[in-house]
Amino acid sequence: MHDSTADALIVGAGPYGLSTAAHLKHYGLDVRVIGTPMEFWDGSMPRGMFLKSEPFASSLGAPFAGAAFTDRHPGWRNGRPIPLATFVEYGRWFAENLVPDCEDAQVELVDRHRSRGDFTVTLSTGEVARARAVIMAIGVRSFAHTPVVLSGLPPHLCTHSVEHRDLDRFEGREVAVIGAGQSALETAVLLADAGAHPLVLARTERLAWNSVPVPSPSLVNRALRGPHSGLGRGYRTWLWAEHPWATRLLPDGTRRHLVRTTMGPAGAWWLRDRLDERVQVLTGRVVTGARESDGGAVVRTAGRTGGRGEHHADHVIAATGFVPDLGRIDILAPELRGLVQAAHRSPVLGPSFDSTVPGLYFTGLASAASFGPVMRFVHGADFTARRIAAHVAARAAGLAAQPAVTPPARPAEETASEAAKEAAPQG
Predict the structure, then answer these.
(1) Where is this region: Disordered (predicted)?
(2) Do the Cβ atoms of 201 and 336 come closer than 8 Å?
């Protein structure tokens, strides 16, 4: 039990929550992090998955050097995909060294105390905690999007890709995967690896693939294609990835278009060879409906240039992404949620990720409508953490934010043998 009011309480212990906690602690603030480190990544992402981002763009945000992914794995080169298990281990190493006091509990309700102006947070342990600021680092789970055209299927026949950590249960079964992005294509490959018979139904006329990274591009190549950033290569991409504050200055319609079109559905370059004859792919097919039939699913599609089809499957997986929606954050008390100004279902945020409710902040996908597409990726965590921590510290002190403590020691270094092993050439 905690009798005092914390300076900040963070809902969630994924990359954004851990990064923000590390920066808040750097200011010497009393911070509570509710959640098990990397639980969503470990429990809801499919086994065998690889990250799409490059190593330099897969780091959590720390207030000092030495805690990046490439510090933990100094031999990891660009162009070498990161296995899910390796990233989860890195995130937990980060938590152990920088945020060691995460609380293994769930937040059930966040409300604001009318007279005091601070927040009351009901936990699964039964405790009602108090905090002057609440940071919603809830990730994407609440925003899983299944198209309404699939609503004719019962839950046991149609699931979202985020519901599957283990695909082995589909061995020998026909599975229709809806989508054309990395999630859909990698899910289909992993289904094939598990002995299933996947069918990908893609709206696009042809699949898109990310380009193979060039280890050391020439000066001419860099000048023509632009700098390399956490979202890829290009001048505008670099701006959105490395300076998200600029995105917030754009008109609302421009930001929406930017979030919708930047880094559109595409497969990682390293996945292309694995999408082989085991996976049937039908492009240019728009799903128009679905129904249950004889214990299985029938998905109806229409071609963009005419023609209709019906596709039978034992199960349907909607790898159709995530759509932020303030109304789906049900741990916010209804009255409190009603005080948060929203536009197109996303909270309207200030320059420090602050909502229209003083002391209430939103991170990750929930902030993408304000700060752009980088907030859909781990790479946005450091910028977010720095902005929020400085603002919370300034509110707590009532003056311009300055670090209240000296930087903590760097996380424990790898032993010489471990570092040498990581740095050794990979076969």
Answers:
(1) 400-427
(2) no
Q: Residue 158: give the domain boundaries.
A: 145-209+266-318
Residues 395 and 354 in one domain: yes
pLDDT number for residue 212: 78
| Shared domain check, 294 and 184 | yes
- The tokens for 326 are 């303030």
Q: Lowest mean pLDDT of 229-238, 277-286, 293-302, name the range.
A: 229-238
- DSSP, residue by residue, 371-383: H-GGGGSGGGHHH
Q: Tell me the C-alpha distance between 73 and 377, whole Å.
A: 20
Count CB neighbours of 233 within 10 A. Answer: 18
For residues 302 and 397, membership in a common domain is answered with no
Contact indicator for 82, 69 with CB cutoff of 8 Å: yes
Q: Strands 315-318 and 308-313: what pairing?
A: unpaired
One domain for residues 180 and 192: yes
**Joined tokens for residue 183:** 């999630």
Q: To which residue do tokens 């152990």 refer?
A: 96
Does some domain include residue 192? Answer: yes
392-404 per-position pLDDT tens digit: 999 988 744 444 4
Q: Cβ distance 363 to 328 under 8 Å?
A: no
Confidence class of residue 116 from pLDDT cuts 50, 70 and 90? confident
- pLDDT category of residue 59 using cuts at 50, 70 and 90: very high
CA end-to-end distance (rounded Å), the chain: 51
Range 143-157 burial, b when 16+ CB lie within 10 A, else e: bbebeebbebbeeeb
Q: Does 258 fall in a domain?
A: no
Q: Judge contact between 301 and 311, C-beta under 8 A.
A: yes
* Contact indicator for 146, 320 with CB cutoff of 8 Å: yes
In a domain, 247, yes or no: no
Question: What angle, rounded to 10 degrees, do the helices at 15-26 and 84-98 form?
Answer: 20
In this predicted model, what pLDDT tens digit does every residue of 30-41 receive, in sequence order?
Answer: 999 999 999 999
